Amino acid sequence: VGIAGSGSSYSLTWNSPPVGTDTITAKATDDNGAQTTSAARTVIIRAAPTGTLSVTPGDCTIPANQSTCATAVAWTVQPSDTPVSLRYRALPSGSWQDVPNQSGGTAQLNRPGGSHRFELRFEDRLLANQEVQGNRAPAVSLTSPANNHTLTLPGSVTLGATASDQDGSVTKVEFFRGTTSIGVGTAGSGS
Fold it and tell me: What SS3 state is found at 92?
């Protein structure tokens, strides 16, 4: 069991200790039954923290002339004094970034377009996560008629536009007279 006169080390893994504050001692017994108890140490066992995370908007359309989406992040954690970290990254494999401007369970940030994963962490444990989508709005520009084009009736006006989408494809280009739709253009025809 032990080696006479030596200071051997002993260990025990205490599996699933109860939540609370405990006083721990070790008691050594020799081969003649004599015992000595160690000085006490206090051990504080905390419940594993839990957390929730909410990122809004979950789907964000970024206007063609902008590059970011205003995003609100809110979280809760129990116990409430648990120190947590909040981070995000672009999917599928962007670098992790801390969420700036964190204050009392909320944060505001302008995230770039595209899909992102947000994580609420305690030390190396993931407490909650949410994936959000971002979509950049397509760009569109009229190519014809020229500005201030004049037409004498009877006649027609050929309408043309170019359109592109940075993170997908354009599915429709619709032309308007004020707020009234004139019709949908045909791809590749310039009208």
Answer: coil
Spatial separation of the C-alpha atoms in residues 179 and 182, rounded to whole Å? 9
Cα–Cα distance for residue pair 73/50, rounded to 1 Å: 17
Token pair belonging to 140: 């569109």
What Å distances lie between residue 110 and 119, 136, 191, CA to CA? 17, 14, 36
153: left (phi over 0), alpha (psi -120 to 50) or beta: beta
DSSP letter for each residue of 61-88: EEPTT--EEEEEEEEEEESTT---EEEE
Count of residues for the chain? Answer: 191
DSSP secondary structure letter of residue 171: -
pLDDT digits (tens, 9 = 90+) for 63-98: 777 778 888 899 999 888 888 889 999 888 889 999
In this structure, are residues 143 and 157 in contact, taking their beta carbons and an 8 Å threshold? no
Pairing assessment for the beta strands 85-90 and 116-122 based on DSSP bridges: antiparallel
Looking at every residue in the chain, the average pLDDT score rounds to 87
pLDDT of residue 2: 45
Distance CA 138, CA 142 (A): 13
Q: Indicate the SS3 state at residue 147.
A: coil
Is pLDDT of 5 > 60? no
In one-letter notation, the amino acid at residue 104 is G
Please say whether the beta carbons of 52 and 75 come within 8 A. Answer: yes
Q: CA-to-CA distance for 163 and 170, rounded, in angstroms?
A: 7
